[in-house]
């Protein structure tokens, strides 16, 4: 199951990334694959194999909880569905590199579960010159998402509080945006909200450290 990306879709995606820094792609990923990935997250949740996410400032649990409330698990390619999804992101990486010369060399991603009442406050995924996350992808795994459940991804203009997009977390949809440019937040959700957040990275060297952990 290859990534179903037509020439015109690719052009639209590339133009949007260059001109506005983000792109919303409904039904990017096959719903059967999404259902399988969703079932994996349910199993992980039941077995207590999802972990509270951090915010990169040590282990201050209370601070973390005021910023983000999701639980995560990194994909490790241990199931067929994960391998299929990672292959599709590899295809996307190839296309992005071919067109935009970004030098993306790696992709990392984690499942995320936001239970009722959970959110992720406004943040940037990467800071210019500091880190090496270049492009963020978020795949949503929620069938029949209802507007009254909230849980939208809000994108903001760089350096202002102006909202530029409100993206409902609907199954199969990919949100793609420039990690260093687009501040964003996840609004409080009224229902469990499942996604796969991922990052294409380039190979930066900071203060002599090759590819430091963020
Ligand atoms: O789930 C989303 O819509 C965005 C998640 C996010 O911003 C992140 O994990 O950094
Ligand atoms: Fe983020």
Automatic annotation (TrEMBL):
SMART domains: P4Hc. PROSITE patterns: FE2OG_OXY (PS51471). Residues 100-202 form the Fe2OG dioxygenase domain. It comes from Thiomicrorhabdus heinhorstiae. The keyword Iron applies. InterPro entries: HIF_prolyl_hydroxylases, Oxoglu/Fe-dep_dioxygenase_dom, Pro_4_hyd_alph, Pro_4_hyd_alph_FE2OG_OXY. This is 2OG-Fe(II) oxygenase. Its cofactor is L-ascorbate. Pfam families: 2OG-FeII_Oxy_3.
């Amino acid at each position: 199951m290859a990534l179903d990306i037509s020439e015109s879709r690719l052009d639209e995606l590339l133009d949007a990334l260059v001109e506005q820094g983000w792109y919303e792609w409904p039904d990017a990923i096959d719903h059967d694959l999404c259902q399988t990935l969703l079932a994996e997250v349910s199993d992980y949740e039941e077995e207590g194999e999802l972990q509270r996410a951090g915010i990169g400032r040590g282990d201050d649990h209370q601070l973390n909880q005021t910023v983000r409330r999701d639980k995560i698990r990194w994909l490790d390619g241990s199931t067929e569905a994960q391998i299929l999804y990672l292959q599709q992101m590899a295809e996307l990486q190839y296309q992005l590199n071919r067109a935009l010369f970004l030098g993306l060399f790696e992709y990392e991603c984690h499942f995320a579960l936001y239970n009722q009442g959970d959110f992720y406050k406004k943040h940037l995924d990467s800071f210019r010159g500091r880190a090496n996350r270049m492009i963020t992808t978020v795949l949503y795994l929620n069938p029949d998402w209802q507007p009254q459940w909230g849980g939208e991804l809000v994108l903001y203009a760089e350096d202002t509080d102006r909202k530029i997009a409100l993206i409902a977390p609907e199954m199969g949809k990919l949100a793609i945006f420039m990690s260093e440019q687009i501040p964003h937040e996840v609004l409080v959700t009224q229902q469990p909200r499942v996604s796969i957040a991922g990052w294409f990275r380039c190979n930066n060297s900071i203060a002599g450290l090759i590819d430091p952990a963020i």
